[in-house]
Specification:
With 343 residues, this protein is α/β, with parallel strands linked by helices. The protein is built from ten helices and ten strands. The strands form two sheets. Strands 4-1-5-10-9-6-7-8 form an eight-stranded parallel beta sheet, sandwiched between helices. A two-stranded antiparallel sheet has the order 2-3. Strand 6, helix 7 and strand 7 form a beta-alpha-beta unit. The protein starts with a strand and ends with a helix.
């Protein structure tokens, strides 16, 4: 399996996030990639390609132009105002306020375009986000042209990025970029299966009114788990997208047997949809020792569900999302790939 990876991910090196009322070292940090790369090498995944610049055409089909312009310029503007090293806000347009106005003041715009306080913008954030989406887009082009199952080792992740908001460590929605690239190259239907512990709210929002992309997500119940305000089972899509959105919220403490039952339901929906290709939003924060998640999957379980995905017999792109038990992230990620490739 070919791997698309860019060392430019390390340009994003945030020094803090706000978590549980404390300023801490971010859970999403560059060393995550080191552990995955080491495990890939150990198991013989040596076909690693750095993608070229893929441009913004696909991105602008999925994200609002004003949002992309904001991300392009926000850090330079922040520094010109002689503010701190990392751009962050203190105000969001709450439910009682208007959200149809974009203020001039930079903290207010940061609040308008963000969904959570865990994600600052650093000097290299935008360059890293562009390189990350290049990995996803190049992987999709490879699959479209050659039929190869591929792994896009993306960082920063993407599935929380909506059409106009960043957060949850995400800026551009990499899985959405991969799906749109496949559609533009001839696919009629693409399924995105999100197996990250946290609901892929951004991916759902982008495709909620569309029938050419089916979205399925297994995740912690949003009554208890980030991102809280999306990911409920009754969200089925709307308009042309009605019936193509499938959420499987699961209780904190869920073990693999119960999780795998939800996976099998999702797989049956994919088969019924007759997808031409699948994009897997591969978060391995379902692991039992993940510090910001609450499922109980063991390392061997990642092998098993890789095998289950392979049995679908549909061309597949794996797009890296979350996973914050850093010592074990490599083993768990490559276990999924091994299970898939060995079937």
């Amino acid at each position: 399996m070919r791997v698309y990876y860019s060392p430019k991910h390390a340009l994003r090196d945030s020094k803090f996030e706000l978590h549980d009322g404390q300023i801490i070292e971010p859970f999403e940090r560059p060393s995550r990639m080191t552990y995955i790369l080491n495990e890939l090498s150990k198991r013989g995944y040596n076909d690693i390609v750095e993608p070229s610049d893929q441009g913004l055409d696909i991105v602008l089909k999925l994200h609002r132009p004003d949002y992309i312009e904001f991300l392009t310029n926000v850090y330079d503007e922040w520094k010109m105002l002689d503010k701190g090293d990392e751009a962050m806000t203190y105000i969001w347009p709450a439910a009682t306020m208007r959200n149809d106005i974009i203020p001039r003041q930079i903290e207010a715009r940061l609040g308008y375009y963000s969904l959570s306080s865990d994600t600052t913008i650093t000097e290299g954030t935008w360059a890293a986000a562009l390189a990350s989406k290049d990995c996803a887009q190049a992987a999709a082009l490879d699959l479209a042209q050659n039929g190869n199952d591929v792994f896009a080792l993306c960082r920063p992740p993407g599935h929380h990025a909506s059409s106009f908001q960043f957060g949850g460590y995400c800026f551009i929605n990499n899985a959405a970029v991969a799906a749109q690239t496949l559609l533009d190259r001839g696919a009629k239907r693409v399924s995105i299966l999100d197996v990250d512990f946290h609901h892929g709210n951004g991916t759902q929002e982008i495709f909620y009114n569309r029938s050419d992309v089916q979205f399925l997500s297994l995740h912690g119940d949003p009554l208890d788990c980030f991102p809280y305000f999306l990911g409920y089972s009754g969200e089925k899509g709307s308009g042309e997208g009605e019936g193509y959105n499938h959420n499987y919220p699961l209780a904190e403490g869920t073990h693999y047997t119960k999780w795998a039952e939800a996976l099998e339901q999702a797989c049956q929906e994919i088969l019924a949809y007759k997808a031409d290709a699948i994009v897997i939003s591969l978060g391995v924060d379902t692991y039992e020792h993940d510090p910001i998640s609450a499922f109980k999957l063991k390392s061997a379980d990642f092998l098993d569900y890789g095998r289950r995905l392979a049995k679908l017999g549909i061309p597949t792109i794996f797009v890296m999302e979350g996973g914050y038990a850093i010592d074990d992230i490599g083993v768990n990620t490559v276990n999924v790939l091994d299970g898939f490739m060995q079937t």
